Amino acid sequence: xxxxxxANYTLSITMDREVGGESLxxxxxxxxxxxxxxxxxxxxxxxHGCKVRLVSLGPVTAFAVKPKEDxxxxxxxxxxxxxxxxxxSPRYTKTYLQQFDATAYRIVEDLALETGARLQxxxxxxxxxxxxxxxxxxxxxxxxxxxxxAGTYCSHCVASMSAASDRQLVADLIHADRRNFGTYGSVxxxxxxxxxxxHLSFTARACTDAVAATG
Length: 215
Hints:
Elements: E1 8-16, E2 24-29, H1 33-46, E3 50-57, E4 60-67, H2 78-88, E5 94-99, H3 102-115, E6 118-119, E7 136-141, E8 147-153, H4 155-160, H5 166-176, H6 178-181, E9 186-189, E10 194-196, E11 199-207
Antiparallel strand pairs: 1-7, 1-11, 2-4, 2-5, 3-4, 3-6, 7-8, 9-11, 10-11
């Protein structure tokens, strides 16, 4: 959780907020290492316009994919991404393409167990435990710029906060995630963050003699 801090101290709190929306998972049963390498190259190519995360690698190679906000027209929507993936499907023994959810992940798990494919670690929501390949993340650093605490949150939990602003969302997540941020007591965020795209950074004052995070 980090080292002991004085009763009142300054934090830098950063949030990388993921845009809501669905992601797809592409699952391919491969025949040899060449096909696995081909899919790894496809992942690298898709990363120019999409967020991509490997889910398994080997005889069953799977990856989650989601268009970036600033993606070019070729991959600007899940429909376009699906067309690209459907076009390459005939190259492999069997493929599956569907929305990423718990059911899709269980399919990958089962196939990986049957074939010896290597499952890749996926982020897990610190509030509900759900796996999410593209989560919102929160980091708190002390004045020495040493990472003290971090949290990961799925799109469902972030949406359920119904926060009116990014500042309120950060405050709500700190308040909800007592396991990772409970040692900070009350946290008062600066009014305006530094912003770079979806990456926001707040200066904050923490007071360990209180128990509620405030916004």
